[in-house]
Write a structure and sequence with these properties.
Layout: E1 4-6, H1 28-34, H2 42-47, H3 71-84, E2 94-96, H4 121-136, H5 177-186, H6 192-195, E3 212-213, H7 225-228, H8 236-247, E4 250-254, E5 267-271, H9 274-283, H10 296-304, H11 322-332, H12 338-342, H13 345-356, H14 366-382, H15 398-418, H16 421-429, H17 435-463, H18 469-472, H19 475-484, H20 492-523, H21 525-539, H22 557-569, E6 575-580, E7 587-588, E8 591-592, E9 598-602, H23 626-632, H24 659-676, E10 677-680, E11 692-694, E12 698-700, E13 706-709
Parallel strand pairs: 3-4, 5-9
Antiparallel strand pairs: 1-2, 4-5, 6-9, 7-8, 10-13, 11-12
Length: 711
């Protein structure tokens, strides 16, 4: 006897086995449709209207389970919105009894192990009636009903019949093109067991995994977990693999800030295959979209502060027009090209040698230490100056310390503002500043005051011809030279604003990646020793001191493999890239995707799948050495070597302009610390014991590390 459970969205009632005395008994009133209060038909009636109440039905919300928390207040309002903008659903999520042992967070609690392949008679009788009603009405048990539906073989009252979802009546035409795509994909199959993709497993057609639609609501998308059933988004290292396990390799979800702006549910298509994502990049043309465009809070502050870069009619640097392209071209010059980025490496090495001295004294607060390291390193790129903030034993300008603090708070809070539903409603829509928005604004004001002052002092020294050779090799010096040549296409104000933005953004983004890499070295002493031997050998020709050549991949392949493995296991951003469709005929996995749709590539989950990576939770840089990469060529596993998975800086024309410099910074500080110290993590034996937080990027809550000087 096979048990099939249709999984869907709001947990307004709980269905459990009566064999488990610790669980609630089945509430037959709720099973009959009264939890949501349809006055006629319960499950079947909801199913016939795409999983929600039809505007033509007389409906009363009779009862709501208080366990839904915020949903107790929000869901009735959102349902009203749904009645105005009905959305077609045709999505079944089936789990066989064989997977009930691993309970997804949003399905009913499973029966006890002894009953894993059967359901108790009480539960069977309670559920049989609504399923039969749905079958008689020709309707399917749809994803928005959150009701467990049983399909039992010939021995059951349903005589083994399955509900033909392709024949379900549709009373409302969808107004959402994203829902229409999902419905069209779902209706391609005749029966529910075929229609339903095996969550997290290989699709029936390996070239075209089926599109699954995660339940979403207007305004909040899928973020109302009691409705959508998604895992905890604040734990991204479990969220993304679990989403893939539940929904497969191709699904949609509502993601405010990341989803489509012209869709009330903020729909975003999520893919695993970077080759499919490449189609989206190729469709974008000269004016592509980018992940940073979702940072509306920071862009709003810049506009309020009078930034010229975001004050153009097409949005300027925050938009997708000619002004974005003009400003972006100026900014990435002398940063993104490999030769340009390499030109700053000697300065980074000098900074790292000074910063490394402060590691032992900073062991109690290593997160702050790496923020100061990131500031010191990018400051030498921007200004050619040695700030020496990282070493607490060195006299430091209090202004620099305050800049680091304010940049950390300002940028981190800006990211929170941009993904906050409260801030979106009050600040973005109504113009009412929230406490969180004011915190961001106050700290950005501090950063601008300090940063613009540094830029002005640099310009004054340049005008007096007082700059040294290191300062003349800086990004800002070259930017001013390009501006004065008259061929840059930007104003002086735009040039200075973009220079400030570079150092502001570098503090909080690069520091997280530094922290993860050094932590992996501390937790893996044998790997750390192999890295030390390689670096010592590469630096031997220079008396044991790092050089630009010693850090090249040809001289230190294990170093580059180490950084790549750190990104696989603990990326500071699990999203490889996010783009918008700019074509009317773009297809992903055989499905035509509407123009303007947001598409995102999950850059993390495949790297945690044993089908692609052996022992995926272990730290093994050897995976990325040339012989291992060559061995994967021509096999399904070569997908993991796609360029989209190599770093966290997005892809295409909107790739982070400072990405090459940032990677060099990480390699340099890691190398210097490993050369100078034997790094250990007393009291911490595994990466699984280390907590982390989603700030500007995902960063570890670093435990205390010991830095023992090497002989």
């Amino acid at each position: 006897m096979e048990l099939l459970i249709s999984l869907s969205s709001p947990p307004l009632h709980h269905i459990t086995s009566s064999a488990n005395s610790n669980r609630k008994q089945i509430n037959r009133q709720n099973i009959k449709g009264r939890a949501w209060g349809t006055t006629r038909g319960g499950v079947a009636h909801r199913a016939s209207h795409g999983g929600r109440v039809s505007p033509s039905c007389s409906t009363v919300v009779k009862k709501m389970d208080r366990s839904t928390g915020p949903a107790f207040v929000l869901v009735p309002l959102l349902l009203f919105w749904s009645r105005i903008k009905p959305k077609a659903h045709c999505r079944h999520y089936y789990y066989s009894a064989s997977v009930l042992g691993k309970e997804p967070p949003y399905i009913a609690p499973p029966p006890p192990p002894a009953a894993s392949t059967m359901i108790t008679a009480a539960a069977s009788r309670a559920l049989r009636a609504p399923v039969a009603r749905a079958a008689r009405n020709g309707a399917a048990p749809l994803a928005s009903s959150r009701t467990a539906v049983l399909s039992i073989s010939a021995s059951s009252a349903l005589a083994g019949g399955t509900i033909d979802c392709s024949s379900a009546p549709r009373r409302h035409k969808s107004t959402c093109p994203h829902a229409a795509s999902a419905a069209a994909a779902a209706a391609a199959d005749a029966g529910c067991p075929v229609h339903a993709d095996k969550a997290g497993g290989a699709p029936d057609d390996v070239s075209h995994p089926k599109l699954v639609e995660v339940p979403s609501l207007p305004g909040v998308g899928s973020l109302l977990r009691s409705y959508s059933g998604i895992p905890d988004l604040e734990k991204p290292y479990t969220f993304w693999p679990e989403m893939r396990r539940q929904h497969g390799d191709f699904y949609t979800m509502g993601m405010p800030g990341l989803g489509s702006e012209d869709c009330s549910r903020h729909t975003c298509y999520v893919v695993q295959d970077p080759r499919e994502m490449m189609k989206v990049l190729r469709s974008e043309g000269s004016y592509p979209s980018g992940l940073a465009q979702g940072s509306w809070g920071i862009f709003r502050w810049e506009k309020e502060a009078g930034f010229e870069t975001v004050s153009h009619a097409d949005g300027g640097f925050a938009g997708q027009g000619e002004n974005w392209k003009r400003i972006r071209t100026f900014m990435q010059t002398d940063l993104l090209h490999p030769t340009a980025a390499r030109g700053y490496t000697s300065g980074l090495i000098e900074v790292a040698q000074l910063a490394a001295r402060g590691a032992p004294a900073s062991a109690a607060d290593l997160n702050a230490y790496f923020e100061r390291c990131a500031f010191d390193m990018f400051s030498t790129v921007m200004f050619g100056d040695l700030m020496e903030v990282a070493d607490p034993s060195t006299p430091t300008d209090p202004e620099d310390v305050e800049f680091v603090r304010a940049a950390k708070v300002g940028l981190g809070t800006g990211v929170k503002v941009s993904r906050s539903l409260k801030d979106a409603l009050l600040v973005k829509t109504l113009g009412i500043e929230t406490e969180q928005y004011r915190l961001m604004k106050d700290n950005l004001d501090i950063c601008w005051e300090i940063g613009s002052g540094k830029i002005q002092r640099f310009m004054d020294k340049r005008e007096k011809d007082e700059l040294n050779e290191r300062e003349k090799n800086s990004y800002l010096y070259r930017a001013l030279e390009r501006y004065e040549s008259g061929t840059s296409g930007v104003s002086l104000k735009e040039a200075l604003e973009m220079s400030w933005g570079g150092i502001f953004a570098a503090v909080d983004t690069t520091s997280g990646k530094m922290g993860w890499n050094v932590l992996h070295a501390a937790l893996n002493p044998e790997i750390q020793e192999r890295l030390h031997q390689e670096l010592s050998h590469a630096a031997a020709a220079n008396g044991g001191r790092l050089t630009v050549e010693a850090l090249d991949k040809s001289s230190a392949p294990y170093l580059h493999a180490f950084v790549r493995e750190s990104h696989r296991l603990t990326p500071v951003s699990p999203i490889a890239t996010r783009k918008c469709v700019a074509s009317d005929e773009l297809t992903i996995h055989g499905i035509t995707i509407p123009r303007g749709s947001a598409v995102m590539c999950d850059g993390y989950s495949l790297g945690q799948d044993p089908m692609y990576i052996d022992d995926p939770r272990s730290f093994q840089p050897e995976r990325w050495l040339d012989d291992a990469v060559q061995a994967r060529k021509g096999t399904p596993r070569e997908l993991i070597d796609h360029p989209f998975f190599k770093d966290p800086f997005s892809q295409g024309a909107r790739k982070c302009p400072g990405s090459r410099v940032a990677l060099n910074e990480v390699a340099v500080i890691l190398s210097q610390l490993v050369l100078d110290y034997q790094i250990t993590a007393p009291g911490t034996s595994s990466i699984e014991e280390v907590s982390y937080g989603q700030e500007t990027v995902i960063e570890p809550r670093l435990p205390r590390l010991n830095f023992e000087p090497r002989a």
